[in-house]
Amino acid sequence: xxxxxxxxxxxxxxxxxxxxxxxxxxxxxxxxxxxxxxxxxxxxxxxxxxxxxxxxxxxxxxxxxxxxxxxxxxxxxxxxxxxxxxxxxxxxxxxxxxxxxxxxxxxxxxxxxxxxxxxxxxxxxxxxxxxxxxxxxxxxxxxxxxxxxxxxxxxxxxxxxxxxxxxxxxxxxxxxxxxxxxxxxxxxxxxxxxxxxxxxxxxxxxxxxxxxxxxxxxxxxxxxxxxxxxxxxxxxxxxxxxxxxxxxxxxxxxxxxxxxxxxxxxxxxxxxxxxxxxxxxxxxxxxxxxxxxxxxxxxxxxxxxxxxxxxxxxxxxxxxxxxxxxxxxxxxxxxxxxxxxxxxxxxxxxxxxxxxxxxxxxxxxxxxxxxxxxxxxxxxxxxxxxxxxxxxxxxxxxxxxxxxxxxxxxxxxxxxxxxxxxxxxxxxxxxxxxxxxxxxxxxxxxxxxxxxxxxxxxxxxxxxxx
Length: 466
Prior knowledge:
By secondary structure, the protein is an alpha/beta fold. The chain has 16 helices and 17 strands. 37% of the residues lie in helices and 17% in strands. The longest helix is centred in the C-terminal third of the chain and has 19 residues, at 446-464.
């Protein structure tokens, strides 16, 4: 079969049978898909043989690049022993090893922020699932059932942030705050309370008084004061609201939130599905402000983008509330068929080895500095209303009028126009509306990162004008 015939065949099958996520399919079938056949390092190759720099780490998961030999080997070695065995009634060698490594990582990352008397708050209990949505779903159910076992039956409400995104299962959507994604499902959702996100660029108060970030916690404290007896947990993405537009919270915000949760007896659930494993320049975003959550949700980068895996990690205080006799029905009734999958666990173990061996975190500072310098140049463009980064997570918000901060009409698809220009230049990026998302692999070279930023800059000039 000729190359053109292969492309026609695959394109026809795609358009006839595949329903792509977060995609307006009417427009999709009117175009031609970019068919990827191979990936290596920080690059992906299409069926015609053209290579593209993967500027979004294949939706933020391939943090160490594609075809990392250590992860390839770990999965291959595990496959020679067992592809899957259940954790329902059995223990697994690989998932057990991983739980131990994760507990040690929690101690290294969060232990320094705990006092000696806080031993019960150490994150040491690992519950496995398979993706970010289910990691959050598990966290919500744990928080609710914890208070139930503590005799606090009235604590069943959850508070979360506007512009927050925690996944697409019903519980995760209920605490989500991205209207475009979530409003259509409102009839299916349970009641939650929303507070404004710390979105300084779109905050009238912050425009008048730069650096007033801590005032963002005022509405949260008001809700805690009046309804704290009903609230099970506050759920947030620490430091960066990713899918909501890469919104970076002001300094001190996360620390203040932790203090409010402690003061009013409310659990803090940190969704680090996007921010975890080095994305923000620290292993976990909570480390930036010395914050230890009660429940930590992780996925995406945990396997380097190789296999679906997620963990919800909590402390002995919460875990202990679920201990009891068989007849007490204190069991946490949650699980799925592939819990603690050995192949995924072996990939995660390899990722942790690479982080340690290659000193990944220590090597991020020069890359983050380069991204920051390039963002400073881009921010001078008349259509770049707001450019910011934390670690290797960044945003460029495109605006129709910079002096007023006027956004482009959604229908104009300015973010996509920039992305298409970038694709022509050999860079794949995926915007969030009018926000250009910067999420390269942590392993990207300085040379490739510089090329990526230059392509984005020139693509903005070409798509939005000089």
